[in-house]
Specification:
Length: about 350
Amino acid sequence: MRIYDLRSDTFTKPTEAMRKAMYEAEVGDDVYGEDPTVNKLQEMAEEITGKEKALLISSGCMGNLIPMMIKGGRGKEILTSSCSHIVNHEIGAIASISGTLPVIVPSDKGIMKADDVEASIHGYSYDMSETSMIETENTTSGIVYPIAELRKIKEVSERHGLWTHLDGARIFNASVESGISVREYAATADDITFCLSKGLGAPAFSILASDSDFIEKAKRCKKILGGGMRQSGIIAAAGIYALENNIERLKSDHEHRAAISEALAAASWADVEISSTNMIFFSSAYPIDRIISAMRKSGILMLSEGRLGRIVLSLNISDEDTDDIVSLIGTIDEGELCG
Ligand SMILES: Cc1ncc(COP(=O)(O)O)c(C=O)c1O
């Protein structure tokens, strides 16, 4: 039986062409700044984000943690939403390593309004911790952040002398969906991190980009966190390949998501709650575990997040696979879900 892996876009595997680029990569010691492939990837990221400097880092979690180590810190507050990755999926690094206090701003599925952000800021006072940073996430649960709101949040941040960090793990999905460039999104924040290892299909690594002073400090944090990597050009070559070849194709992941979301909407056992870019979240009257196991029996792997079922599209799935997945969803027997 063919297995379709819709658990996450992190399950992508390097293609032949990407592996060839990795095999042929020129390398050097990146801790000394002497890996030409890493340097080329960082220059490409500077061009894409419009930031002065970019730094190759090992993961998206590191890309969120370093800004909090530099601009947050012990007892300082970061404003974020209850849906954010830093709050939910980073093993408490925000508290255990950076010591930054997350303050939850009300949001609609992760999209905060600038007015609510501003109302949540604590200035200097004898009995309150002080806000030092704002974090936005784009996409957030697959949803594209409206750029007008991001710009307003940046204005709020500047007015109060705060730092704005953008978790752009899936910023390329946001960009191909909205037609707004990554550079324009990056301009709504003081720093941006994005992942090469998700929809873009590289086996590892992320980028952190900002001004030179910030990136100089970030290099030291990267080393402290065990992220000083030597001949990392081998993997950076996959990142270059991904940026050159895998951005535009994200559109087809979004088309596949739309088709699968329609199939779920037509099924009596699923209520689609979020369907955007490459992600679907749905609820059900049936326990989500039963749905996951019925899907697995049909050859579809998926995950749950809280009470919701989660499906993520990536380059693992072709047009033909999508047609097959749509028909498989149609064959799931509601009787089986009753237990
Ligand atoms: C929004 C978001 N930020 C950050 C990360 C962390 O990325 P990594 O798994 O590379 O640490 C993820 C991973 O799924 C994510 O979805």
